[in-house]
Structure formats: C-alpha cells, structure tokens
Design goal:
Radius of gyration: 21 Å
Oligomer: single chain
CATH topology of the largest domain: Aspartate Aminotransferase, domain 2
Bound molecules: pyridoxal-5'-phosphate
Order of helices and strands: EEHHEHHEHEHEHEHEHEHEHHHEHEEEH
Number of helices: 15
CATH architecture of the largest domain: 3-Layer(aba) Sandwich
Number of domains: 2
Largest sheet: 7 strands, mixed
CATH class of the largest domain: Alpha Beta
Length: about 400
C-alpha cells in the first residue's frame, strides 16, 4: 500500500527508529520563549566557540582556487590524508598508509551511519552500547540489521562488560560499536580496556568500530588513547574521527576514518554511490587545523576546563552529586530525587528556564540521568547556577 490514512507510507526502516520522546519538552520550550523567558540551553552538543582564525583564512584562500571548485576525489585529497597520517603518528604513535588506511568523511556521522550499510545484511547482529550517540543504532536499523544493546552502567565506569555478553550472541554478531571518551557519559577507557576489546573481537570474529570524536577534549593531564595503539587492532577495526569537536568545526562537515584497509574500502564503496566527497577547500582548512593541532586544541580545552570547574563546583555547593569528567564537554548527572529524566528536564525548564538533555534520549539505561553540555559561556553558567539555587535537590 502506497498511501495509508491519506498519507504516504514510510519505509519500514524509518518506522523502526525509536520514537521521538521530547515533543512535550519542545512545546514547553516554545511556550516559555513566547512569554519572553530567556532559556539557558545546556542541551546542545555543539561548540559555541568559533572556528580558529587560521582555519577560516585557509578556507578563504582555498575557495579562490578553481581546482577546488570541481568534484573532489572520493577518498579525499592526498594532502589531507597525508596530514592525517602525520597527526596520527604524532598524536598516537600509530602508523597509517594514506593510500587505503585513511578515508575523508563528510563529518564522522556520515561514515558512522554508512559503514553499517556496507557491512550488515538483514538480520545480522550489531552490538551497540546504550546510552549512546543515536547514529550507531540508526545505521544498523537502516541496514535492516538487528541492534543488540549493551547497557553501560555507572558501577563499571560506563564500560561495556564484555564477559557478560551471551557467547551465543557474540558469535553471531558481526559488528560492535564503542565510543571513548564517551558521549553522553563523559566516561574514559581504563587500564587495558582496548586490549580486552581486541581480544574479544578476535575470539568472536567481530568488527570493531570505535568513535573517537572527543579525542582532543580532555583535562587534568588525561590524553585519550586510540584503539589502534593495541597490537592487532588494525586487523579487526576502524576508528572514526571528527574535526567538529576538536577544532569547533561542526558546521564545516569534515571527519575521517582510519584503520583496516578492507573495511575502509567497503565504506568507500558505499560512499562512492551516495556522495561525492568533501569540498576540497574545506579539506585544506582541515589540513590547517590538524597541522596546528595542539596549538589550537590547548586553548579550546582550557575554555571547557574552566567551565567544567565552575559548573561542577557550583552544583556541588548546591548539594548536587556530580562527577568531574576527565574528557568531553558533558556532565552526566544522576537525577536527585525520584523523577524520571523527562520529568526532571521538564521541571528544570519550567522552574529555572534551563534546558538539559534527558538521559533516556540516549537509551533506556540513560534513565535516571541528565546530560549537561558545557557549550555556553561562563556568564551563562553562573546565571544557570543562580537559577538552580531555588530548587531543592536533597
Ligand atoms: C558530535 C559527535 C559525532 C559526529 O560529529 P561530526 O560532526 O559528524 O563529525 C560523532 N560521535 C559522537 C559521539 C559525537 O558526539
């Protein structure tokens, strides 16, 4: 049937996506805005700080070059991939071949969604953590494959407990997603976690996709490791990177994936059929960002660190129990009292005009938590703390 109840009928893959849970919140937000209430929005995982100037200047120059006005190559400029190689070697001490082990992406989200189309058949199983960035699941659902959810629990530092995965399921699973530093929990890997992942993947013949979007956002001396630092990791996996969070470039749409040659070629094959690459001038700007590397990220991190300290300490003074995250710009906070994450978000919005993200939006195990994004300036964070004074959390 093409039409049902007078409307075009969606493909099943769209109906299999989880329902949108926040309509009521959107409605409240709209009403408050109508009344002229200034909402402090702590729900947005999108840096408020502008892209560094040298990156912008490089785009301006590169955009004048007619060579860049034509279709880019599918794998991305060799000069961009070469810069990724250097950055990886310098940052992680991992060697990569720009010819086959690196692929430019139109933002990492694009690659994250598309790799499932290249790897999964209908009915195949993919292991997906939850709470998580929703795109892992969307890609798997669009491939008509089956997500098998692994709950991330606080008492395990929000790391998946690989030993507890049913071996029956593990032997049938084709793909597994991990993401550290983690959105939304702010968790980081511990000790030998990546070694365990590689061992597990080899034992059960599972492909590992690691999302390392927050590699450069970390504090207090912590530096996020790469999965590919583990011996043998390149045999079983790939790692997705983004310039979005590292260099405040979410609007530019540039990221990359590195690692196993065959897997990268499979993703490349999907992409050659659906997109035509990243505007070369943007890739040149990306080269500039990677080249300047820590010179840029140090400043960016410092801004977030100050915000983190200010807000965590402020919340603690108000009686909230909050962990100080060592990476990402998120606070993942257990909700005081007995409210659900949507109820509590609604309450914060109505009582304080503060918007946060209900944890349940990232998966059922996110229930009982909210996510706060430190993507507003210190002044607004102070104002948020003032507003929070009037609600009791004990
Ligand atoms: C922001 C984000 C991304 C995607 O970033 P792009 O802008 O598409 O490169 C990927 N993974 C996680 C966990 C994110 O938070």
């Amino acid at each position: 049937m093409k039409v049902q109840d007078g409307a075009f009928k969606k493909a099943e893959r769209l109906t299999k996506l989880p329902p949108y849970l926040f309509a009521q919140l959107d409605e409240t937000k709209r009403k408050l805005k109508e009344k002229g209430k200034e909402i402090i929005d702590l729900s947005i995982g999108d840096p408020d700080i502008p892209t560094p100037e040298p990156v912008i200047y490089r785009l301006i120059e590169a955009s004048k070059n007619p060579v860049n006005h034509r279709y880019p190559s599918y794998e991305g400029l060799l000069s961009f991939r070469e810069e990724v190689r250097k950055w990886y070697l310098n940052r992680f001490d991992v060697s990569l071949d720009p010819d086959g082990e690196i692929l430019t992406l139109i933002g990492s989200k694009e690659g994250i969604a598309h790799i499932s189309l290249g790897l999964l058949n209908p009915g195949d199983i993919a292991l997906i953590p939850e709470p998580a960035y929703p795109v892992y699941q969307a890609g798997v659902i669009f491939a008509n494959a089956r997500p098998y959810y692994i709950s991330l629990k606080e008492d395990r530092g929000f790391l998946p407990s690989l030993e507890e995965i049913d071996p029956e399921v593990a032997s049938r699973a084709k793909l597994m997603w991990i993401n550290y530093p983690n959105n939304p929990t702010g968790a980081i890997v511990k000790d030998d976690f990546f070694q365990k992942v590689v061992r597990f993947a080899k034992k059960f013949n599972i492909i590992v996709c690691h999302d390392l979007a927050y590699s450069e956002i970390s504090y207090d001396g912590y530096k996020a490791p790469s999965l590919l630092q583990v011996e043998g990791a390149k045999e079983i996996g790939v790692e997705f990177h983004s310039l979005s969070k590292s260099f405040n470039m979410t609007g530019w749409r540039i990221g990359f994936v590195v690692g196993n040659r065959e897997l990268i070629n499979i993703l490349r094959q999907v992409k050659t059929n659906v997109d035509s690459g990243v505007f070369q001038a943007v890739q040149e700007a990306g080269i500039e960002a990677l080249k300047l590397g820590e010179k840029l990220t140090e400043k960016i991190k410092n801004i977030y660190r100050k915000r983190r300290d200010l807000f965590v300490e402020g919340l603690r003074k108000l009686g909230w129990k909050v962990n100080m995250p060592l990476a990402t710009f998120y606070l993942w906070i257990r909700i005081p009292g007995g409210k659900s994450s949507i109820e509590f978000t609604q309450y914060l919005l109505e009582e304080c005009g503060i918007m946060v993200t209900p944890g349940v939006g990232f998966g059922p195990s996110g229930e009982g938590y909210i996510r706060i994004a430190l993507t507003v300036n210190e002044e607004k964070l102070k104002e948020a703390l003032n507003r929070l004074e009037k609600i009791r959390v004990k």
